[in-house]
User: Fold this.
Amino acid sequence: MAVKKFMYVNRKAPYGTVYALESLEVVLIGAAFDQDVSLAFIGDGVYELTKGQNTEAIGQKNFSPTYAALGDYDVTKIYVEKESLEERGLTLDDLQHLVWEDEDEDWAEKDSIRLVSRAELADVMAEQEIILSF
Amino acid sequence: MGLLHTVNKSPFESKTFDTCLGYAKDGSTVLLIEDGVYAATTGTSAADKIKNASGVTFAVLGPDLQARGLEGKLADGIKVVDYEGFVNLVAEHDSVQSWL
Assistant:
């Protein structure tokens, strides 16, 4: 099977709507097909990655720990838009520290999150073959 | 007591929060719930608007803030309530306007 460049674009905050969870499920399903996968978090999508989420009191499943498992599924390119973070008063420190292990370098742990400007992300988006938007 | 306004949309995705502010008179309360809680976080233009809206009381639903991992980002001057507190606010006000 030919490898294609897939990008999943995440633009919605978690819990208020089901988009964030549905996107994550599709990413995990897609990961089984050994494609070249990128995730983009822009707008309210950056809220999906905040650390310390605790959904006990709202009676919904906390799916945020699943983002930390993406590296094990070879999903290693997670683009976070700088402008979106800034507008929301957030920095990378407010987000989970997501990593993956590089088997070509003796399983060295590497950061999955790439903080990029809108213009840089637009370039990455333009290189994609298939874009799925949530 | 005046109206209790509830807002459940992110201020970045919808105009609901701004519209609500235009209708929030002195003595009323604005309760931020669900994705509305993002308006209660520091470093956002929504938090600045809350700061400048004197005469209006602002509250946020704690469980929704916790779910989103933003308890530590709460802006000054906003009261945190639990579900019981939500019920009390409804009981204390004359009527409820749920901005959707």
Observations:
- The domain at 5-133 of chain A is CATH 3.40.1260.10 (Hypothetical Protein Ychn; Chain: A,).
- Residues 19-30 of chain A form the longest helix (12 residues).
